[in-house]
Structure formats: structure tokens, C-alpha cells
Design goal:
By secondary structure, the protein is α+β, with helices and mostly antiparallel strands. The protein is built from 4 helices and 3 strands. A 3-stranded antiparallel β-sheet has the order 1-3-2. Helix 2 runs parallel beside helix 4 and helix 3 (112-129) crosses helix 4 (135-145). The chain is elongated and about 70 Å long.
Length: 146
């Protein structure tokens, strides 16, 4: 009879250990996924071989700033007037800035320093947006102070 109890307690211990291991693994994967999503929303991921002459493409989520296509177009217009103004395709440059209607993301193809400058502009715009004074005022403040 005592050997039967040992087997039951051993089985119980192994099931508990397996459940704990599965729970820990789930937590690790969930935090990794959240961190990856948060990191991508903050700005460009640094490539291992950064070149100031190579054009990198990146999508930026601006749903916290723009709630409609009109607001997204206003942000795009402000970016083109404020961030690395001479290099955008509308000014005859090589950098591209696109927006798909219905989404609050912008697709940017630019050299690395241009991405860094765009990230600084978006961070500044988000800081000014916290004051709640409207998108136009936020973008005006961000374009003069980033």
C-alpha cells in the first residue's frame, strides 16, 4: 500500500510541474510578443548593418494621433514640410511617404537618418498631443520644437 501512495504523489508532482512549466512558458511568450509589438510601434528597428546611403522601408502606426484619413493626410503634409524637407519624393527627392486609406499607418521609405528624424518628430507630436489642444496645434508645436 505505501508504494501506491508514492506513485500517486509522484504523478501529482509531475502534473503540477508540467502545468507550472506550461504557465511559465506561456508568460514568457506573451511578454515577448507584447514587447515586440511595443518596440515596433516606437520606431525603426536598428538593422545590423546600418548605412546612411541605404533606403529602409518601415511602417509607422499613428492611430494615437490620427483618427481619420483627413487627420492622417494632415500629419503626412506636416511631416513633408518639417522632417528632412528636401528629400521627399514630392520635392524631387528619393524618400517616399505613403498612406493606405482606412488605416492609420504610414509607410516610409527613407535613409536611416531620415527615419531617426521622423521618429523624433512623432515622439514630440505624441508629447504635445497629451495636452489635448487639437491635432493642428499639436502638429504646429511639434514641427517647431522637435
Amino acid at each position: 500500500m505505501p508504494s501506491h501512495r508514492k506513485r500517486v504523489s509522484w504523478r501529482r508532482f509531475s502534473i503540477q510541474s508540467a502545468l507550472i512549466a506550461v504557465a511559465c512558458t506561456s508568460v514568457i511568450f506573451a511578454t515577448y510578443r507584447l514587447g515586440l509589438k511595443h518596440g515596433r510601434s516606437l520606431g525603426p528597428i536598428v538593422p545590423t548593418n546600418v548605412s546612411v546611403n541605404h533606403i529602409y522601408s518601415r511602417d509607422y502606426d499613428i492611430s494615437d494621433l490620427a483618427k481619420s484619413d483627413e487627420e492622417t493626410e494632415l500629419i503626412i503634409s506636416t511631416i513633408r514640410k518639417s522632417v528632412d524637407t528636401v528629400n521627399w519624393d514630392v520635392a524631387g527627392g528619393y524618400a517616399e511617404l505613403r498612406h493606405d486609406p482606412g488605416s492609420q499607418t504610414i509607410a516610409v521609405s527613407h535613409v536611416w537618418p531620415g527615419h531617426v528624424e521622423l521618429v523624433r518628430f512623432l515622439e514630440t507630436a505624441r508629447e504635445y498631443a497629451a495636452f489635448g489642444r487639437g491635432l493642428e496645434v499639436t502638429l504646429e508645436d511639434a514641427s517647431t520644437n522637435f
